[in-house]
Amino acid sequence: MIRPLELLIGLRYTRAKKRTHFISFISLTSMFGIALGVWALITVMSIMNGFERELRDRILATASHITVSTRAGSLDNWPEVAERIESNPRVLDSAPYITAQGMLTHGGAVSGALIRGVSPDAEKDVSRILSSLIAGSVNDLQPGAWGIILGYQLARQLGVDVGDKVTLVAPQGRITPAGLLPRLKRFTVTGLFRLNMYEYDSSIALIHIDDAARLLNTEGHVTGLRLVVDDVYDVARIRYSLEDMLGGDYSLSDWTIEHRNFFGALAVEKRVMFIILMLIIAVAAFNIVSTLVMLVTDKQPDIAILRTLGFSPSSIMTVFMIQGVVIGLIGTALGAVTGVLTALNVETLVPMLESLLGIEFFPANIYVISDFPAELHADDVWRILGASLVMGLFATIYPAWRASKTQPAEALRYE
């Protein structure tokens, strides 16, 4: 139990005297080292949480929660399958789609693209692409009109805008007397979308599902169904229930399976970054050990006098543990305040820093996300603060134990 006298003596030892300035300097270094580590951990973990949130939201803007197809890669009786699936109360909407790889050309520009045939009315319910148009109108995507909606970056690569013509080279060829010739079709650009995710903005092109069926010779069947469910984090359980309902003839996948490696790598990176940045706090904690060892050596006469006045070894140990805990507590508090303020304002601070330095940290044409999103999680903050305080406490145990073993007679022999 900590008594007021032990607390007062411990706090008194944290203040410097003229002959202990060096010890106090190391104490300050330890304190700011802990503050730096806590600040860096809270800021980096918040930024990584923000990156994960942005990536998940942008992926779900185009990827379906659950995809239903067959092992053959086509779905013939999709209206009946859609009706059965939508009888599940956890499935909110479904939409058919036809997908294929293709090549788009305009003038001398050529670019590969993922061609997706969609039904505009149904697609609005399962993705945010059609609600992310920055030019044109989804109403112009009519069957037989051969309209196409391009990603913003894809349109820039081709040098086209709304109203321009592009030529689509389909993967399925036509057999003619001259041999197998590629299937070509001219489309009119009716819209441009922008999801602010370079991978999607530079590779996806939408056409009407009827036009896709005619172009790709898939009339009567589709590639599959895209589903939206009521809880994207419980999608695995919903997928299992649909698999039981539909039987083994159908192949179901969900967004967690399709992007498992990506989010798994992100989780591993978060853990590694946590461990690496914790080493900053560990180094500062070792400085506390050296500070207290020197202080114990400097305070040998004081310890001897306290022992002769009736202080027990545990009380002496408590006095020196208090000083180490104070250093850790102040450093942790400073780091927590600075880290939380930085995490809450990082989306403003980073553009200011980029403008000041004249550089772009994450160019949009290289990285998936070009800004610095941040999401502060209270459990991350408490975990970091707890780890910091525990490391600071453990750093005090050995020096305080050494102080408690001081023999008064030996300490006062040459005084």
Structure explained in plain terms:
The protein contains 14 helices and ten strands. It has 415 residues and is of the alpha+beta class. It has a six-stranded mixed beta barrel, surrounded by four helices. A hairpin with a 2-residue loop joins strand 6 and strand 7 (179-193). Helix content is 55%, strand content 20%. The longest helix is centred in the last third of the chain and has 45 residues, at 313-357. The protein has helices at residues 4-13, 21-62, 78-86, 120-126, 152-158, 198-201, 209-216, 235-246, 255-258, 260-298, 300-308, 313-357, 378-404, 408-411, and strands at 66-70, 91-106, 109-118, 133-136, 147-151, 165-176, 179-193, 204-208, 224-229, 250-254. The chain folds into two domains: 4-58 and 262-411, no CATH class; 64-258, no CATH class.
SSE map:
Elements: H1 4-13, H2 21-62, E1 66-70, H3 78-86, E2 91-106, E3 109-118, H4 120-126, E4 133-136, E5 147-151, H5 152-158, E6 165-176, E7 179-193, H6 198-201, E8 204-208, H7 209-216, E9 224-229, H8 235-246, E10 250-254, H9 255-258, H10 260-298, H11 300-308, H12 313-357, H13 378-404, H14 408-411
Parallel strand pairs: 3-8, 5-7
Antiparallel strand pairs: 1-9, 1-10, 2-3, 2-6, 2-9, 4-7, 5-8, 6-7
Helix pairs in contact: 1-12, 2-10, 2-12, 2-13, 10-12, 10-13, 12-13
Distance between the termini: 32 Å
Structural class: alpha+beta
Main sheet overview: 6 strands, mixed, barrel
Provide the residue-averaged pLDDT. 80
Q: Strand-and-helix sequence, N→C? A: HHEHEEHEEHEEHEHEHEHHHHHH
- CA radius of gyration is 33 Å
Number of strands: 10
What's the domain count? 2
**Which stretches are low in confidence, meaning pLDDT under 50 for 5 or more residues running?**
none
The helix tally amounts to: 14
